[in-house]
């Protein structure tokens, strides 16, 4: 194994590979997905009921709805716009407040509200929104609350907000896509263009070729993982440990990418493989997203041992002792994969020699 | 146009597809993976707030409010209540004092103890607090001087909500169809790159025959996979004919788009480069079904909207021909437009 040759091959990969479609997608896609998932899905997956208001006057209720922490409040310009929003399911319920609503309520006179309810809204959301609106109206009317509520918290489990639940998925996408697809497509491309056979008759060994391609995947994948954590303000305090775990994850993804690249005979087969097993890469992140699913299911998937330490370190302030077990399992998986790649490299070399 | 030649070409493409054991296995595995994910997802929707209640004296309002979003279970001790909360059986545990009715009648303030599990989100704590306050207002006779006229928009799904996994059916089915855009375009691109398409055209095979053969192959693969998935997951339980026709029209649509992609790319990689953004755009309407209210009316300019919307409405709401004929007509229009456009552009590239 010549490090000089690996270096030359690596620089070639960066010079030519960086112009490829997959290379660009590996960089752009995690950034776009991070933005979309954080900004849009963070709200979508929220369990807060959504209430729309169309205010024909200047009611205090509108501001109370918008500023409420327990519901998602939105204001609409007209009753028609509100009705459309309810019809589309953008809000669970929409209320139309008449022009002099607050005065009527304060004076104790009967006020009228039109409420649109989305047919697919959950019963519990309807109850919560009904009670919340009623409480706000009573607040405006100046009615005194007849109860004092003393809240006690039991247990020590933590509520995980949706933005945090999505982080494993975003991190996995950053690490896995680049780590797998960059080396895999590069290898398949070389096979299809027969440049791999040409390279095999130079002093460069297949091991060196695989290593250089794998390193490109590791570098792209690690850089994207770090970038995504920084963008999501989730870098935590244990920077060297976190980067170490990201590198291990990137190594695993790239080794798997090399395996895929060796097995797939063309780009179509490679994409078909990803279509079929792609969901398995991200399965631990989906399990993490929904606490109702037994969490042990996540441990079945190898990528769990990438994402769990990252989440533990970045979100729960975990240290080496907290993630050591997962790290050792991950290293074990990587060694097994490297062993398989070694065997594949030997078999491919023999095949190329015969050819 | 010679039908035996077309049949031979279709048979050749399909045989090649299935003879490649790896490719065939992977395609089947894809469907299996989607089916497994479907069956792993919850089959029902929990519509109710489960509240545990310890009340030596039960105010009538708590009895009246049972159902329609609230499930109130009375327990015989505070300890049982706390256990229920920590075990997750109750979202919250409410302890009403013995003298609640007397105090409310006298206009005195009542203290209510409420227990939450530590991982209960703040919004749910606020929701329960608001709910208890409102019940107390009503029980104490403080009337809300507001007349609310309520209108349910759309079919009222109370008690029969669509489980998330059934919302995913159109998404998965459409995704299987859409990915065949890449399959077909790469199939054609391979023939162009390997110059076998040009070789075919010097045989009795005509350009129209070639398109028809490739089109039949594309439609068969896309339609077959989506049909298999939707049949296994029970998506054909309602309005099967409408769904079958919609999937077929969807398969024709992706075939037309596949022709366009094959003509746009100069090799397999560039076909993929054009194909992925196309698939992402075509998948947007499916997100609108999974997350209602996230996409506005502009989504209707995307042809796949009419495919997704029709499958969703028919499979999940049982909409009939009379309700969705416009969708089918528009989808057919898009089919004709894309297939013709694809053929014209690809013919220019071939000849």
Shape of chain A: elongated
The value of Rg of chain A in angstroms is 28 Å
The portion of residues assigned to helices of chain B is 55-70%
Radius of gyration of chain B: 29 Å
Note the run of SSEs of chain A as H and E: HHEHEHEHEHEHHHHHHH
State which percent range the strand residues of chain A make up.
Answer: 5-15%
Structural class determined from secondary elements of chain A: alpha/beta
pLDDT averaged residue by residue of chain A: 83
Q: Tell me about the biggest sheet of chain A?
A: 4 strands, mixed
**Derived structural class of chain B:** alpha/beta
In which order are the strands of the major sheet of chain B placed? 2-1-3-4
Work out the strand percent of chain B. Answer: 5-15%
Oligomer: heterodimer
Mean pLDDT of chain B: 83
Count of runs of 4 or more consecutive helical residues of chain A:
13
Unreliable stretches of chain B (pLDDT < 50, length at least 5) are none
Largest sheet of chain B: 4 strands, mixed
Give the total of beta strands of chain A: 5
Shape of chain B: elongated
Biggest contact: A-B, 92 and 89 residues
Number of domains of chain B: 2
Structure description:
The complex is a heterodimer of chains A (355) and B (351). Chain A is built from 13 helices and five strands. With 355 residues, chain A is an alpha/beta fold. Chain A folds into two domains: 3-42 and 160-354, no CATH class; 47-141, 3-Layer(aba) Sandwich (D-Maltodextrin-Binding Protein, domain 2). A four-stranded mixed sheet of chain A has the order 2-1-3-4, sandwiched between helices. In chain A, helix 3 (60-67) links the parallel strand 1 and strand 2. The model of chain A has no long low-confidence stretch (mean pLDDT 83). Chain B has helices at residues 3-19, 21-40, 60-64, 78-86, 100-106, 122-139, 164-193, 196-201, 207-232, 240-264, 268-290, 304-317, 321-350; strands at residues 49-54, 70-74, 92-95, 110-117, 146-153. Chain B has two domains: 3-42 and 160-350, no CATH class; 49-139, abc type-2 transporter like fold (3-Layer(aba) Sandwich), CATH 3.40.1710. In chain B, helix 3 links the parallel strand 1 (49-54) and strand 2 (70-74). Chain B is built from 13 helices and five strands. Chain B is elongated. With 351 residues, chain B is an alpha/beta fold. The model of chain B has no long low-confidence stretch (mean pLDDT 83). In chain B, strands 2-1-3-4 form a four-stranded mixed sheet, sandwiched between helices. At the A-B interface, helix 2, helix 4, strand 4, helix 6 and strand 5 of A face helix 2, helix 4, strand 4, helix 6 and strand 5 of B. Strand 4 (111-118) of chain A pairs parallel with strand 5 (146-153) of chain B, so a sheet runs across the interface.
């Amino acid at each position: 194994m010549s490090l000089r040759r690996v270096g030359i091959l690596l620089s070639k990969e960066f010079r030519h590979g960086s112009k490829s479609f997959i290379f660009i997608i590996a960089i752009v896609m995690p950034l776009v997905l991070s933005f979309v998932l954080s900004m849009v899905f963070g709200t979508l997956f929220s369990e807060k009921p959504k209430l729309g208001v169309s205010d024909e006057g200047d009611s205090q209720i509108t501001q109370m709805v918008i500023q409420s922490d327990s519901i998602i409040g939105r204001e609409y310009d007209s009753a028609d716009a509100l009705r459309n929003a309810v019809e589309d399911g953008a809000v669970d319920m929409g209320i139309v407040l008449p022009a002099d609503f607050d005065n009527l309520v304060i004076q104790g006179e009967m006020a009228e509200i039109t409420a649109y309810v989305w047919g697919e809204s959950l019963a519990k959301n309807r109850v919560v929104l009904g009670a919340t609106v009623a409480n706000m109206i009573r607040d405006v009317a100046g009615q005194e609350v007849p109860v004092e509520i003393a809240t006690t918290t039991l247990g020590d489990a933590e509520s995980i907000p949706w933005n945090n639940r999505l982080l494993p998925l975003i991190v996995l996408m950053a690490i896995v896509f680049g780590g797998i697809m960059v080396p895999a497509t590069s290898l398949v491309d070389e096979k299809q263009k027969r440049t791999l056979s040409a390279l095999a008759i130079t002093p460069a060994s297949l091991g060196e070729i695989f290593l250089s391609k794998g390193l490109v995947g590791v570098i792209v994948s690690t850089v994207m993982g770090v970038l995504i954590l920084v963008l999501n303000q989730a870098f935590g305090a244990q920077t060297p440990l976190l980067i170490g775990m990201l590198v291990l994850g990137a190594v695993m993804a790239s080794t798997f990418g090399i395996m895929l690249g060796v097995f797939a005979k063309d780009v179509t087969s490679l994409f078909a493989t990803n279509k079929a097993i792609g969901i398995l890469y991200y399965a631990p992140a989906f399990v993490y997203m929904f606490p109702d699913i037994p969490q042990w299911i996540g441990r079945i998937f190898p990528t769990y041992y990438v994402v769990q330490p990252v989440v533990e370190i970045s979100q729960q302030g975990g240290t080496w002792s907290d993630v050591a077990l997962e790290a050792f399992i991950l290293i074990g998986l990587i060694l097994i994969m490297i062993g398989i790649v070694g065997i594949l490299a030997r078999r491919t070399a023999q095949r190329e020699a015969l050819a | 146009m010679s039908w035996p030649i077309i049949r031979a070409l279709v048979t050749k493409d399909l045989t090649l597809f299935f003879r490649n054991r790896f490719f065939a296995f992977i395609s089947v595995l894809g469907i299996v993976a989607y089916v497994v994910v479907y069956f792993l997802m919850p089959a029902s929707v929990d519509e109710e707030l489960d509240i545990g209640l310890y009340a030596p004296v039960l105010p009538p309002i708590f009895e009246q409010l049972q159902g329609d979003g609230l499930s109130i279970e009375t327990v015989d001790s505070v300890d049982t209540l706390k256990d229920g909360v920590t075990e997750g059986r109750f979202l919250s545990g409410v302890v009403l004092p013995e003298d609640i009715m007397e105090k409310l009648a006298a206009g005195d303030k009542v203290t209510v103890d409420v227990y939450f599990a530590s991982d209960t989100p703040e919004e749910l704590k606020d929701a329960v607090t608001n709910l208890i306050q409102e019940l107390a207002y009503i029980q104490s006779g403080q009337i809300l001087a507001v007349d609310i006229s309520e209108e349910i928009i759309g079919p009222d799904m109370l008690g029969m909500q669509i489980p998330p996994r059934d919302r995913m059916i159109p998404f998965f089915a459409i995704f299987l169809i859409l990915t065949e855009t890449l399959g077909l375009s790469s199939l054609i691109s391979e023939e162009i790159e390997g110059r076998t398409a040009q070789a075919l055209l010097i045989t009795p095979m005509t350009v129209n025959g070639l398109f028809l053969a490739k089109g039949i192959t594309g439609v068969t693969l896309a339609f077959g996979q989506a049909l298999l998935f939707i049949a296994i997951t029970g998506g054909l339980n309602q309005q099967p004919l409408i769904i079958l026709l919609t999937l077929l029209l969807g398969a024709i649509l992706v075939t037309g788009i596949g022709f366009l992609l094959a003509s746009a790319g100069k090799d397999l990689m560039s076909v993929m480069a054009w194909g992925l953004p196309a698939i992402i755009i075509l998948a947007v309407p499916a997100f609108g079904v999974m997350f209602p209210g996230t996409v506005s009316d502009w989504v209707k300019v995307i042809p796949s909207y009419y495919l997704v919307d029709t499958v969703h409405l028919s499979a999940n709401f049982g909409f009939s021909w009379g309700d969705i004929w416009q969708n089918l007509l528009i989808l057919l229009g898009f089919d004709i437009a894309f297939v013709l456009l694809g053929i014209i552009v690809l013919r220019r590239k071939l000849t």
